[in-house]
């Protein structure tokens, strides 16, 4: 899980996402170390790692925001940290953009604990990440 080791993950409190201003969902103190953001997920290994971190923090598998959205164009998903949206783990039938209002991405949906698009104004915990400069060489 080498990519995931480059980031510190933190499950912050329950936040609603304000548009693409995902950074506001991460602790303000983190900005001095670079740019914190909602975690992006690029592989099954990274997703498993994030789920494990969330489980350690909470003792379960609560729904939680990660860094993906399709606010600019419906169906065009982007990572809030600017990396490529090159991996998905949608639940069956998702993303469904229910009532035309679901433009943010959360994890641990359904029995299989996969991904769903949800209303950005919903309050879930946020999985934040930032790079660790010394270990990313
Ligand atoms: Ca949905």
From TrEMBL:
Pfam families: Lectin_C. This is C-type lectin domain-containing protein. Residues 1-19 form the signal peptide. Residues 21-129 form the C-type lectin domain. The keyword Signal applies. It comes from the Eukaryota. Keywords: Disulfide bond, Signal. InterPro entries: C-type_lectin-like (IPR001304), C-type_lectin-like/link_sf (IPR016186), C-type_lectin/snaclec_domain (IPR050111), C-type_lectin_CS (IPR018378), CTDL_fold (IPR016187). It comes from Oncorhynchus tshawytscha. SMART domains: CLECT.
